[in-house]
Amino acid sequence: MGYVAVKGGTKAIQASVDVYKKKKHISGMDISTEHVKANMNQLIDQVMSEASMYDRNLASHAIKQAEGNMEEAVFLLRAHRSTLPRLYYSTVTNTREMFVERRVSASFKDIPGGQILGASPDFTHRLLDDGITYGSVETEGGIPDEYNYKLDDLPKVIDYLESEGLFTKEAEDNTTPDDITKHSIEFPSSRSQRLQSLTRGQTGAVTSLGYVEIRGYGYSSHPNIGEVRVGQQPVHIDPAGDGDEYYIGDVELTEVEAFMPADDAETSGEGAHEKTFRIGYGLTFGQNETKAIAMSVLDYSLSNPVPSSPTADDEFVLLHIDSVESTGFISHLKLPHYVTFQSVLDRVRQTKGDRD
Amino acid sequence: MKQNYAFLDENSKKEIRRKTLKAIAIPGYQVPFASRELPIARGWGTGGLQLTLSLVGQSDTVKVIDQGSDESVNAVNIRKLIQDTTDVKDTIHTDEATLIQSRHRIPEVPLRPYQILVLQVPLPEPLRPVEPSERITKMLHADREYSGAWLRLFEQIMKYGSITDDADYPVLVNGRYVMAPSPIPRFDNPKMENNDGLILLGAGREKKIYAVPPYTKVTSLAFDDYPFEVESFDDITCRESGLTGVYMDELVDEETGETYYVANDTSFMLEEMNKEGSVR
């Protein structure tokens, strides 16, 4: 007679958990959370960005516990986030006050304050390096002696376009943004819902959809990166709401302003068209440059929809880029579905007229 | 790390309870809520679990079911999380539970007036198979424009000669909202009609809560000439317990290759087998 699992599931499941936990330590080597924190900065940045939780210590802890699995690490932090009371929103923060560590413009060769290359893998050859074959690296650089700009007050590239009349700045909107973690997103979405959803998005998903938009299913052309800047952004809160702000620390951010040539709405439809620039905006926790650029592309595509393009559809983009949601739903397919499958069998047999 | 009672912070639980009250007030209507991430994955019952965690009090007795079994992976996982964070009593006996969280089954034992059944919902939108856009399905519900749902069934009859919707078969609640009853088998749909307990449905990933309050009219969509049909287990007897007239799992005997059936609601089956003068 066949085996029918009526009892015993609990024991089997506990045994599986034990094997999983034991397997992690099978080599006898163990790295500390401090090692992760010291050596895995880029991974930490990606995890914090997707988790929408800025805490390098907890992110390192999550990465170690997840055996370096991105989706698991993000999942751990998101779940932890649900246990924390949300006390304050930061006051309006201005990225012109960012302490810039890296900043490049792809649009202009010479920009006020100069190109600041900072730390990036962009200029390396991707050769597997064991540290012996190619020798070790001596670091040089730093800020030149004669530098007339303050790194926490650098002009923005976009200022030049504005001064030339090539870009019309939208009125500043300092209303409290919608928070999709407190009110689920509703459609049509607001820009703040879109930006929040995009910045929490899975790095790979945001990048892929951004790629879709510029390769051929939307804007289908290059944006020009006006500026990518990475640096430390001071954050303040105003607990009493009386304008008395308190500094609570810096967060590392990547900010992107992408220039997209577009028809000027003012002139469209009557006689000769004028062209202008619009911007797509990307902002992420940590140094996540590819994601921030893709985010800027999608911010543009959702605000300036090309009809029938999938990346112009806010539901299509925003409901499918969250790591915890997509990986959770895909992985749930592993759960038992005996009951529903029995129901499917019943219907399939009925259509075959096979009911005996 | 130190955990809150029932995992979530109190403000989150309060918000979920408020949305639950709204759901009860508008039977079958999907109330959006700011779904929280939990230590179990999206798609693994986070909607149901948020309902349970926001409702569970120290005097509650909890039962958790996955696919009819208290011992299946999802049930074990969820029960452990509830217990680890609340220390409440648990049971496998439907009658003893005040709060029952279930994935894809309504127990064979009818609900009592003091009981809440929480169903885990993967896809709360019954119109999704005919309309992918959320903003449009919201309008269709507002307009009570359900031709898509009816046409879908009609097309199945045209194509296959019968309605082929299997589990998660759409129902009309209180004559107003078409609702996805979560992937319970059609066999369980009639149990929702005019039942004594409160049924809450939670979709975590899709961020919706909805409800069937006690004594609500719940009808499965069907046509006069093509009536609603449940899965047929007419001539089938449970090989373990001799039970009939319950939802069955279909199994294959490894030695003889013969198909046989066992009652799916395992706690009910055990209760029946332990009764004096039971069939076996």
Summarize the structure in words:
Chain A is of the alpha+beta class and 356 residues long. Chain A has 2 domains: 29-85; 95-120 and 149-329, no CATH class. Chain A has a 4-stranded antiparallel sheet with strand order 1-2-3-4. The two termini of chain A are 23 Å apart. Chain A is built from 12 helices and 4 strands; from the N terminus they run αααααβαααβββαααα. In chain A, strand 2 and strand 3 form a beta hairpin. With 280 residues, chain B is of the alpha/beta class. Chain B folds into 2 domains: 10-143 and 166-219, Rossmann fold, CATH 3.40.50; 232-280, no CATH class. In chain B, helix 1 (10-25) packs across helix 2. In chain B, 50% of the residues are buried. Classes of the chains: A alpha+beta (356), B alpha/beta (280). At the A-B interface, helix 1, helix 5, helix 11 and helix 12 of A face helix 1, helix 3, helix 4, strand 11 and helix 7 of B.
Question: How are strands sequenced across the largest beta sheet of chain A?
Answer: 1-2-3-4
| Biggest sheet, spatial arrangement of strands of chain B | 1-9-8-5-4-2-3
- The value of Rg of chain A in angstroms is 25 Å
Q: What is the overall shape of chain B?
A: globular
Which class of secondary structure composition applies to the elements of chain A?
A: alpha+beta
Number of helices of chain A: 12
The name of the CATH superfamily of the largest domain in chain B reads Bacterial phosphonate metabolism protein PhnH
Proportion of β residues of chain A? Answer: 5-15%
Contiguous uncertain segments of 5+ residues of chain A:
none
Count of structural domains of chain B: 2
Biggest interface, CB < 8 A: A-B, 57 and 75 residues
The count of β-strands of chain B is: 12
- Give the distance, in angstroms, between the N- and C-terminal Cα atoms of chain A: 23 Å
Number of helices of chain B: 7
- Main β-sheet of chain B, in a few words? 7 strands, mixed
Number of strands of chain A: 4
Kindly, what is the distance between the CA atoms of the first and last residues of chain B, rounded to a whole number of angstroms? 49 Å
Sequence of secondary-structure elements of chain B: HEHEHEEEHHEEHEEEEEH
Number of domains of chain A: 2
Helix content of chain A: 25-40%
CATH topology of the largest domain in chain B: Rossmann fold
